[in-house]
Amino acid sequence: MEIETHRNILLVEDEAIIALATKKTLERYGFRVETVASGEKAVEAIASAQNVDLVLMDINLGPGIDGTTAAERILAIRDVPLVFLSSHTEREVVERTEGITSYGYIVKNSGETVLIASISMAFRLFEANRQAKEARNRLQATLDAIPDLMFIVDWDGYYRDFTNSAGIVPLAMDPGQIVGSHIGDVFPPEEVEQHLALYRACIETGTVQSHIYDLEIEGEKRFFDLRIARLDDRHILAIIRDVTEHRRNELRMEKLEQAIRQSPSTVVITDVDANIEYVNPKFTELTGYTPEEAIGENPRILQSGHTPQLVFRELWKTVTSGHEWHGSFRNRKKNGELYVESASIAPVKDKTGNTVSYIAVKEDITERVLAETRFKTLAEASPILIWESDEDKECIYFNAAWLRYTGRTIEMELGDGWAEGVHPEDLQRCLSTFHAAFDRREPFAMEYRLRRFDGTYGWVYDHGSPKLDGEGGFSGFLGACVDISELKRAQLELNDLRNQIENIAALHGQLPWSSSAPTERKS
Known about the structure:
This protein is α+β, with helices and mostly antiparallel strands. The protein has helices spanning 16-28, 39-48, 67-77, 91-98, 112-145, 189-205, 244-261, 281-287, 291-294, 309-320, 366-381, 400-406, 410-413, 424-440, 485-508; strands at 8-12, 32-36, 54-57, 82-86, 105-107, 149-154, 159-163, 209-217, 220-230, 235-242, 266-270, 276-279, 325-332, 338-349, 355-364, 385-389, 395-398, 444-451, 457-468, 474-483. The chain has 15 helices and 20 strands.
């Protein structure tokens, strides 16, 4: 017989001779034995000592508490294997001890073989119980951590058990009503039919079945992922995960992907080494490169050599530092045609803040650049004073005619610097007219005096119109000024002449002969 030795046994026996004989027997098998003669002493020993591996308990202990009461108090203090050693064989006594502990009941005088075998069995049973308890605890911890709802469902669709340890999966009915209810109490008829078919396929084939379904809970449509595994020939285990947020994210991603695919702007996504991972259809339409030709390449396949390298260095410095870059490129299509595009390039970061890719949103501005170039060419050649403002009421351009007229540099005029040249008596009226028209986004016309290069003031007629794109987008004002100084001088001279005529007419009406008709001469 293989005996576990070097274990500590507390022997509770009130008869000294029996205690001594039992102790010697146990020590011969390598056990360390401590004896006490009362139930109270046994409880004290357990409370104070931590090295008791087993309690061998007599039932009749004389005055004081008996062995069964002492056993109950001991087990309330510590989980330890406890074996009763008694001369009683009455059914009621044995049944009472079984209600306290199940590690054994030894009848005295059964012999040392029975004694040692019973003790050895008690140790093995205690170890098995310990391992089973640890396994149950691990299982419960696992179940508590699983964010899933688990049901045991029979062949006919009745719920037999369930667990929702994490408590994060919403239920379609009160938890107290689930066991014994039918899946038809939860699902509409078409889902009931499909679920039963899956249950029976799982039971018949033993293969795991899966199904994604939606269910309205508390007025909200939610999505669930169902996995079904066979338990026996009548029951399945249904594991249900709430995938509502995941499904919603998928739908959002599908919408986003659709929006990117249909975007009128070019979209390019690269990895952190600037290798192309995705291009949308607009990219192919504009550049001529198919996704198969572009993916894996570097965006430099579009470079024409007409964009300064300083631009690319500044771009890379900006995005690698975690910021968004804005600028423009003069690129080359697959067929060799040059085009100009404006771009916004930004890093894409994961939840930890690390850059995982870069996304570029670009727009073909070739026609706009050509139009602006033609406008600037015409404006610079025009004798009319031309100016341009942005959407923030800041002037961003004055042509050569304006600068010659005022004798100032472009840097002096930009922003609201041009207002320094307006005559102080006209300035407030000029600004009020401009701002009011700007806020209403309506054309305006006004006259004011503007200081010329020689320090004198000339009258100008200024007409401004809002800049609107094809979709009604507002980007500022465009204006043209004409010098009307000579016209103003002529108007003043005409007014002076008119006043002189009126004064002469008024004076003529005051002469004596102008007050009555001439008299006839008498003969």
